[in-house]
Amino acid sequence: MNDNILFHTPRKDVSIVLCGEAGQGIQTLEFFLTRIFNISGYHVYATKEYMSRIRGGSNSTQIRVSSDHVRAPIMRMDIFIPFNIEALKHLEKNITTSTVIIGDKENLKTEYNIFDIPLTRIAAEIGGKIYENMVAVGALSKLFKVNPQDIREYVKTHFNRKGEEIVERNIKAVEEGYYEAEKVFKDAEINIMKSTDVKNHIILNGAEAVALGAIAGGCNFISAYPMSPSTGVFVFLAQHSSTFNIIVEQAEDEISAINMAVGAWYAGGRALVSTSGGGFSLMTEGLSLAGMIESPLVVHLAQRPGPATGLPTRTEQGDLNLALYAGHGEFPRIILAPGSIEDAFYLTQKAFNLADKFQIPVFILTDQYLIDSYYNLPELKLNDLSIETHVIKTGKGYKRYLITENGVSPRGIPGYGEGLIVVDSDEHDEEGHITENLNLRIRMVDKRLRKMKLIEKEVLPPELYGVEEYRNLLIGWGSTYHCIIEALKYLNRNDTALLFFKQLYPVHSATLTYLEKANKIIFIENNATGQFSKLIKQTTGVECDNLILNYNGLPFTVEDLVEKIGRVI
Length: 569
Fold this sequence. Notes:
Largest sheet: 8 strands, mixed
Number of helices: 21
Shape: globular
Strand content: 15-25%
Strand order of the largest sheet: 6-5-4-1-3-2-14-7
C-alpha cells in the first residue's frame, strides 16, 4: 500500500485537503496542523470553503506544506482526509490515482483505496467523536516527521485553560493517531526540505492583518454590525480592545455603525467600520454625509457574492463598482485593494493616514478568500510606520470649510482650541452654516473636488512582475495576486508579465504607458462583468476584450489560471 509516489519522491510542496460537515472541527484541525507544521520548519498556507449552515453540508480546508513560500490555492490533492462519505463525494472530482486518501474505512464504505485510520473508534475510546480531528493531527504529524514532543507542548499550551483532563485527552488522541499511522504507513514519510528560519515566522489570516493594520494606523474606535466575511476584523479588535484602548461598538444596524464612525472622527477619534456588500448598501447615506462634512472615514468592505444575500460564505470581487459609485452626490474617495496578507496590514495602516490627510472616505476592499486565508510570514516591519494626524488647534473666527487652493480645509475638533466646530449635512458656508447661496454652492463643490489633484500625486503605482519587454500583459487586483504570480511562474514565458494594482481608485497616471506596450491585455477578475477592466477603459480609453473571469463563489486556482491564460495567449 505504501508504493504511492508521494512517499518515494522528494517534494517541494504537498497539498492536504480535509473535509467534513460543519461542526466536525475542520477549522480546529486546520489551525493545529498549520501551527505544528510551522513549528517543525515548514512553510504553510491554508484556505477554506464552507457552507452557510451551522450543521451539515461539506466544509473543506486546503493546507499546503512546503519547503518555500506557497500562497495560492490549487486543485491538486496529494492527501485527502474525508470525515464522512458526503465529504468524499463533495471532492471526488479532484481525486486522482496519486491522491493518498486517509480515513475511517468502516464509515466511508467506498471502493477507493483507503489508508485506514479508525478515527471514530479511537476518538470514542478517548472520550467522544470530538477527538477525531486530533487523531487526524497525530496521523499527519507522523507522515511529516513532526517531533511528537513539539505536538505535546503545543497541545498543552492551546488547551491549558480548559483543564488538565481536556489536555490529557487531546494529547492521547494525537498520540493514538501517530501510533496508528506508524502501523499503517510503516516507514513511509513525506520528504520535504525544512527551513530553519520558519520557526520565527508568524501566521496571520487576512482579517487579523486588516485589524493589526488598523491598530498600527491609530484606530481607536470601531463600529460594526456583524456580517460575514467582515466580522473577523471586528472580533479581533474587540478581543484586543483593552490592550490598545479601542472603543468597540456593535451597533444595532449598519446605518448606526457608519454614523457612529463619522461622529468619532468629528470628535477627534480614528474610526473604522467593517462590513460586507449587503451591509455597506445601508451605509451609503452615511458615506455621503462623510463626503459633505469632509470627514475622514475608513471603510473595510469584505466582498462576498451578491446580489442580496447571495452566497454569504463564499468569495467574489463584485463590489468594486459599489465602492466606486456609492453615495449620492459627487465627492472624492480612495479605494485600496490588498493582494496579500502583508498588503492587508500595510494598506490598512496607510488608509487611516490618507483619510486624515485628505478628509475623505478611504476603502479597504478585501473578500472572503483573503480574509479567511493565512500563511506564515516574517514579522511585519513597523519602524517605518507612523500615525499621521492633521488636526489643528483652532482660534477665534475659525472656519471649518475655509476655501483653499488645494481643497483641503484646516480640520479642528471640539475642545481643542477656541474655535467653534460647525458641521452640517446641508450645503454650507466656510463656517459650516447652512446656505442656499448657489454661487457659494459651486465654490464648495469645486473646493471638495480639488482634493483629487492632490490625491493623484500620492496614488500607489501599479507593480510590474515578470519581463519588462512583454507582449502579453496580465492585469489583476486584490486577492488574485498570489494565484496569478504562481501561474505566471508555472507558464515560464518570456513574453508575459503581470501588472498588479493595489490602489484601484484613483487610477495611476502611468497605467496607459504600460497598456500601450502590450500586444495583448488580459484582465483577471473574480466577477462576472470585468468591473476593473471597465474602470481602466473609462480612465485610459483602452478597451480590452480578453477577460478571464470567475464568479462561482470560489477563488481561482493555479491550475485553472494556467489553463485559461495559456488558452488566451
